[in-house]
Specification:
Structural class: alpha+beta
Order of helices and strands: EHEEHHH
Number of helices: 4
Largest sheet: 3 strands, antiparallel
Radius of gyration: 32 Å
Shape: flat
Length: 173
């Protein structure tokens, strides 16, 4: 077993892959936890400590790795990896890459079309284009504003039914 202090964005698969490909160490399991630091009254090393200024130092991520024994031979490693894969743990095996004919089962054309449409909608929302649908009440309000600006009517507070309300708000019929 070995414990490492790792960056917060490193995950278990990354550490397993790192140890296997760099040091040729087969990893059987990985446990990780993020240890929060205590709240302090001010940043460490401040010239003039501020009164009642609270600061939490950055958290520390620790990962504990269970490694295969050093005397395990290559054939035993492969057998152990196969056994652990069957049990649902252990070494991660990438699935084989799908070819063109095999993608039809996953309906890739529909997925690509939907993704393209979502990207267009997202860009339109960011730019502020086309995100709103003209509604009947918008055109009525625009018409009222035009009449008021031209001076044909003067504004006075009150309620006027333009037929937009639905259901019980319109009254009994």
């Amino acid at each position: 077993m070995a414990t490492f202090i790792t960056p917060l964005n490193l995950n278990k698969l990354d550490l397993k892959d790192y140890l296997y490909h760099l040091y040729k160490v087969p990893v059987l399991s990985v446990r990780s936890y993020v240890q929060q630091s205590r709240i302090r009254s001010d940043k460490a090393g401040a010239r003039m400590p501020a009164y009642r200024r609270w600061f939490r130092p950055r958290a520390v991520k620790r990962m504990t790795v269970e490694m295969a024994p050093a005397e395990m031979e290559e054939e035993e490693e492969k057998e152990e990896a196969r056994r652990r894969n069957m049990e649902g743990g252990g070494f991660f095996v990438w699935p084989k890459k799908l070819e063109g004919g095999e993608l039809e089962a996953w309906d890739k054309e529909t997925y690509d079309a939907a993704k393209k449409e979502q990207d267009v909608d997202r860009i339109a929302r960011v730019r502020g284009v086309g995100g709103t649908v003209p509604r009947k009440d918008r055109s009525i309000i625009a018409e009222q504003a035009r009449i008021l600006l031209e001076g044909k009517e003067s504004w006075r507070p009150g309620w006027k039914d333009y037929g937009l309300a639905k259901g019980p708000e319109r009254g009994f019929q």
